[in-house]
Specification:
Four copies of one chain form a homotetramer.
Chain A (H helix, E strand, L loop, with lengths): L8 E4 L3 E4 L3 H8 L1 H4 L21 H21 L6 H12 L10 H4 L8 H15 L5 H7 L6 H7 L5 H14 L8 H6 L1 E4 L2 E5 L3 H19 L2 H22 L8 H8 L9 H8 L3 H11 L5 H11 L5 E5 L5 H15 L3 H4 L4 E7 L10 E3 L5 E3 H4 L12 E8 L5
Parallel strand pairs in A: 4-7
Antiparallel strand pairs in A: 1-2, 3-4, 5-9, 6-9, 7-8
């Protein structure tokens, strides 16, 4: 039995409270690699749009743990066997599924550690923790990597209806106040079942799955791909790119040690020794914020201006359209800006750029969401849904944006 | 009329959304001094206890603005005259009432700017913004400082039943998940009235006021004075004190410019030139976090250990008692620690210390909460309440704590 | 000014509290025709499926009043002129828009007062109250009937985005616990505007309107047209039909006076004298429930069995399909039942029947929801939405059901 | 294992959803004695004050079932052994703990079945159901009656911190919108433990217990003993008393069969044969409402006036005071009324009366709430609480009211 002093309960504004189910999991939560997630914003810079959204990767991971406990309870009640070892491995894997995220979550993958995904970094972290815990994470890692034969265990962690999505959609809806994106995670979980070691949703859950997909679509367009949020993230990527550029050219630049290391060194996945991982682990949102405040006084116009724009939420103008903006439009904005502030075209490009945002609410080509009928039949949810064209959700929607400085009044 | 493009609405998880009522207020919100509040945690390090509580001073200030709009609406509906100029001044004053807070809110008043309260700093900031806005904040500042004759306007901003408390209790309860501390702010506001320019609560609101006081008491003991939170804050004060000590003694120390300035210089209120205010404004939670990560590798045992304790949430043991701990107990813990790590008594004192926490749920000696009876009589709420000994809430409760390192297993 | 003792505030679990804005409105709320709505369930027998859903027509009407106050505030803030008289008329009209509902809301229109819609009855009630209030409801009635030139006032009461829908979707979602149907009513209202006296939604509100339509679709299929709820309602219609039949054939039957009158008399709209209206007003859910309990002991097998089925929630089996059930299937079930209990085919038909349920989430042919662009253009929301096939929501979806007795174990 | 088709999930606005844990429990829920609770308002006539509060005894019972499942889970996780048979018995006992309530809950105990408490009636119902289920409720009944040796099982059902209170306080707070009465039921449950077969709260739960007691006190004064609600309940008791009086005197009176039986017959507990129990079971709120609507046209002034007052919410004036009203005051009001409407003093007494309301938030003399310290010590919560005078909550508070007709404007 869990010793009393480690049987912990944590408050959560959404689920009321979250129970830590075992001593091993308690110890993993106490690990510095997990605790650092307190300093990484779950939604990056989205708080510039939704000022309530300062929740962290740590709380999201704990929320996933909570939902996974519900899922285990529901499945067992339906006769699905999950051994105590599998159960604990599930909890560990979901807790650590995002442990590889860097500062401001996704922005870093495009700057600091270009080309190494956070999923790969999560595995590196898990391996490292596993070593410290003498192999107790073996099964968790196997499940996470999809190498364990009972595939539904992996699907609970990573699929189109995993505990990750069930928590983050609900949580992000809660903290942003976008109530239309609220989903009934517990109800969806109550409709899960397993057949042939595959995760299914029972027939009566079709509506709930539909709503889940629609809520997800909503959250993408209204929140994750909100044009102001996209602009802020693009600025963040560019401020780090500029810092790297200046640093590479020998400029004096305020940087913490860890940031300095990653701006200086091109690191591939293979390079990640335990020491480098430790250095990466010491990076979080605060380094970038602290650095930008110093940079806001830097003599380089691009670096200081970009920094101030983010810090003071004085962002670029963003225009969304169905077609990519013309090269002429971009050139004209760049030209104007370059003339006004005496910038090179390269420098002006930091403030005038375009891109696209795209979302597919449901991916049919991937492993889909399966509906299990009372008679034992199984169909993809898109085919099971009889009164709504879910297929529309399966085609990607792409929009284009152009960013340029706001004309000042 | 407000130009369409500045009539802004912000999402808030608590009130649904918050309306920005005028262009001037919109511009004040966009000011960098206000935007910096995005980087200051409303509850300091309480998120180490309540992982959902990462909301910021910025959102709290906007929440207060929202409640103030309700209050103006309610009072006007009851025939209380509030001119448009007074109305706008109220909104400005409540928005900026906490703009003077530094990193981690209260902790800084005991380290960075010892002896200058955040209220005083708020006034300095307001004056500075007022200058930039050509005196448009004159009335707001007069109300905030209590210099405007219609005293209820000031009471709406600062009293035992002000919009500040009505927002922060509700908000902190919401984000921590301590639902018992939830208060019905809108209902309390609906019961406000004004007589002889003084703020009153109508007779039927007695229960609501009682509950408000009880909820406040609960939040103090369960949240604001939670022993783990207190320990974390004390460690934070000590890590900065040690940094100052080392820096003063000539040690090399990673610090941003602003932190360096304030650790180096003893600043009194009179010293705050616009430049120094600007430097102070550039300080926020991220500087302290970023610095502690660097310090966690410092050669000084005290500085590096304290830093790691906070970052990794590996805090001291805290024992609460009704009596102050004995000098012997403190000495014994210090002695043990000094022996174990070869520390001087002064150094050991950074890890072994005691203190007290105290709260008075309701202060009778101060300007109290007045109940207005239908017959025009006015009584203090403590006397008005007829079936519960509210006086018990008016006596301060003090507890003592001792902190020392956890015995490792 | 409103006399203090009539400035009332009511608690509402959804909006916190609802303010009664004037003395006249207070007096209308106190009228017995409005108070009777306390005894009429907003969702009919849906509480047999969703046990939390016992909210009443009275609370819904008050909720609409609350939202209308928001709408007036928002529109005025955008420069739309609404005179105090128009304002009060809006409140009265929305308060009374459903006052004509009979017991269990919609079920009665198919039995008690066949052929007289509740909207027509609402007008009859409004006229009657207007007489008692010396014509003070003239403008409210004109707006309600669409006879007032400023058409947006009527649209706020009755259109595809009226305060009625904004309240009932939110409220029914809340009380059923179907959180996916929650809509952000206040946010939708904040995006309303008026051009050429027509109600519009501002451009930035497109997503919110989409979500509103999707939530509405969800609530229809998951709640309002839930198969068990449909079966219960059909049984209720049939129990009353049977009572009428028996009563017409001279059987002794327990009935209150009002129920007796309406089962005995075929009443058209033209027949509604003030006396008959008063008799209708005395009917509510309790009469039907009380009667069914008496009927459950009646010697007629059909009447007593149907009554018990509803009272004890021992309902028929319902099978949903995309095609209408075959005549053979119906005949076979009827035949089986008739044989088992020695019933005539007509009697068996009370327990075996089919029907269809249909819903159109958005009606394009009707006056649609108009989107107002910043450049002044106006488009229907279906055309304005650029990344989701809203047209799919505009085609009616029909399903068929067959009901027959459950095979007993 | 539970057959799939009986593993039911119900929506609940508060807990999300409620799971029916076994087939036996499913069958008990389907029993007509349980289903009738759908027609009995949990809070009597309180909906005349709080219009959202139409929730039923059925939903409250299901909510208790849900909390009991949490309690079993928590206690087992702490090593408390609860056998599957005990578990099911707990669920049955809590489901049926209030099944003996009559129309409008408490009002009936003072009129219809004077002198037979609802608890006694609950046992009679349980015995009857037990017979139909061949003794499967034996253990549940033993636990409910306190005859089972493991006393904590009974305490979970009935004590000062039982699942009943944990549900009804939360639920009534939710449905009335009195958010200050919200309690964190799940958190309180998480702190339960058992020592020597007695229910305890762990030390860290002291604050939560305090808050629970304060919330309970609040709900009593603000909701359950709200003066308007008290007046309505007193009127209801009197309308039935008058009906009984008239009926006894041979007047013609509309009554359903069941109501007639109980107004005619004085029934003691010993009289309750299965037939009489069945008659009682057929009584619910609808009978009283339907009867009052008929009575509102009765020739007896007292009966018709009282009925209309309740139906139209046109209640008496209520004045609360610390001292009982004087006999002179009562006599004067009665005299005035008698003169105005030509009533006998006895008749006038139906409209002019006084009484008292009293509440004790915590009863020390009874079996108290025990706090279990880490060191194994046990203390009553009143002694355990160190910074708040909980003893104040243990003294009864009594207030007096006088009711008389409102002076009409």
């Amino acid at each position: 039995m869990v010793p009393r002093n480690k049987l912990k309960i944590l408050n959560d504004p959404i689920y009321g409270f979250i129970t830590i189910p075992s001593e091993l999991i308690f110890d993993i939560i106490e690990h510095r690699y997990f605790q650092r997630l307190r300093r990484i914003s779950q939604m990056g810079l989205s708080y510039l749009v939704y000022p309530g959204a300062h929740h962290t990767r740590l709380l999201h991971a704990l929320g996933c743990l909570h939902l996974m406990q519900s899922a285990v309870r529901v499945l067992r009640a339906k006769g699905v066997e999950i051994s105590p070892k599998e159960e604990e491995a599930l909890y560990i894997a979901i807790l650590l599924h995002d442990v590889g995220h860097g500062p401001f979550s996704h922005a870093m993958e495009h700057s600091i550690v270009e080309g190494v995904s956070h999923e790969r970094l999560s595995i590196l972290f898990m391996n490292q923790i596993n070593e410290e815990f003498n192999g107790k994470l073996d099964l968790a890692i196997a499940i996470f990597k999809g190498e364990y034969p009972r595939i539904f265990l992996c699907q609970l962690i990573s699929s189109q209806l995993d505990m990750d999505r069930l928590d983050y959609l609900k949580r992000d809806s809660f903290y942003t106040g976008v109530v239309e994106g609220n989903i009934n995670s517990e109800r969806l979980i109550s409709m899960l079942n397993v057949m042939n070691d595959e995760l299914m949703v029972e027939e009566k859950g079709i509506y709930s799955v539909e709503e889940f997909l629609l809520a997800r679509r909503l959250m993408y367009w209204q929140v994750y791909l909100h044009k102001t949020g996209v602009a802020a993230e693009q600025l963040l990527i560019r401020v780090l790119k500029r810092a790297k550029e200046l640093f590479g050219a020998g400029h004096q630049l305020y940087l913490g040690n860890a940031l300095e290391y990653f701006l200086e060194t091109k690191v591939t996945e293979a390079d990640f020794t335990p020491e480098i991982l430790e250095t990466f682990a010491s990076l979080d949102d605060s380094d970038v914020l602290a650095a930008m405040k110093q940079w806001s006084h830097h003599e380089d116009f691009v670096l200081s201006t970009l920094s101030r724009m983010i810090l003071n939420r004085d962002l670029l103008k963003v225009v969304i359209s169905k077609e990519p903006p013309s090269e002429e439009a971009l050139a004209s904005h760049r030209h104007q800006l370059a003339a006004k502030y005496d910038l090179t075209p390269h420098e002006a490009g930091y403030f005038v750029f375009s891109g696209d945002i795209t979302n597919t609410a449901y991916r049919m080509e991937e492993e889909g969401i399966k509906i299990l009928y009372k008679n034992g039949n199984v169909r993809d949810v898109v085919e099971a849904s009889d009164h709504f064209n879910l297929k529309a959700l399966a085609s990607p929607v792409t929009k284009f944006y152009i960013c340029y400085p706001k004309p000042k009044d």
